[in-house]
Structure prediction request, 420 residues.
Amino acid sequence: MLEVQTYPTVGEAASAMDDRARFLGGGTLIMNRVNYGDRRFTRIVRTTDASLSEIRAQGDRLEVGAGVKMAEILASRDLDFLSPAARAVGGPAIRNMASVGGNLMAPHPYGDLAVALLALDADVRMVSGEEMSLEDFLARRNGVVRSLLVRRPQGDEFRFRKVSRVKPKGISVMSMAAHLTRSAGRLSGVRIAYGAMARTPVRVRAVENALEGVSLDLAGISAALSVATEGLDPPDDPIASGWYRREVAPVHLRRLLLGEDAR
Amino acid sequence: MKSPVTFWLNGSETAVFVDAGANLLDVLRRGCGDLSPKYGCGQGGCGACTVLIDGEPHVSCLVLAETVAGRSVETTGGLSNGPDPHPLQRAFMEGFAAQCGYCTPGMLMAAKALLDRNPSPSRPEVEEAISGNLCRCTGYEPIVDAILEAARQRGAA
Prediction:
């Protein structure tokens, strides 16, 4: 039998977690499992703690509560740089429900917002107070997240693209995000992240390295395009095969980097 | 183990006992007898179960029922004014925007959320508003036309 436990603070809720419990955010992941009779858990743990839904400045970073919904990101002027990724998640009803924290836990091929946050070098603050890079968090996906910490990108240096077969709403063939920082007119310290190309959203270091010191034009990025999927083994799923994902990734990477419209 | 939940269903205060882990769709249909929201996929992928919670569209199959305590829930069952269909319902009928009709309640609620917020939407805005609702019969065009027609008639009234 399933049991639902509701706590007034996220700290108490986190303390109630164990292997047989699932933390309920917006419900889009956990209720799906409940509806399909997943018996790996017997307790749903949730909290009414309003602090999880706050968006606030934290030094030079923005702190986004794990309970903030995609629709709230779209309504926030401070988080307008995340709008393309938040809008890529589901339709309007899902965006009223799906939370930032849930997106970090979403199984392949979901988790488009996490791709954007990964490229932006976001950090994760756990309920325990521990802080870690989103990349480290995605490698273990364990514990209850309190918030995300992210710096606002400058000018047009952040780009996001979701590739799906159905418009305007479709599941990802892949999603890509790039934080194109420059030094003396050339790319420097660039971060590239993919979604739906591995078990979790991942950084693509081969591409990042190939973009170091080059100019942002077709000649400059050609070496990066040739290593677009180096080290990746994209999964097969009903949306696309791994082979297809590998084949088309360089095309979409080029479009992302050069700001080209899809034809 | 059942727990009591009180909420507002189409403007009427409603109290039901819900099973632990029950979703709102199940409670509306089996607990409240409101059969207007439909079960489609149970994954939030089809939108057939769309209802408005505090005016915003939600897929009720993924809403833990007890989270609507004290909140307002609107379904297609509450759209008409007695025998008079809602303008959206009338536009759907007159524009042949329903074939099998299974997606219609979800489409209507997604459209109502849009028109309540934006009385004069563009065609792309309508397409975006119903992008989470699948229809396997119509090809969507009559549905989009009907929503635009309902908006026009509201504006002309």
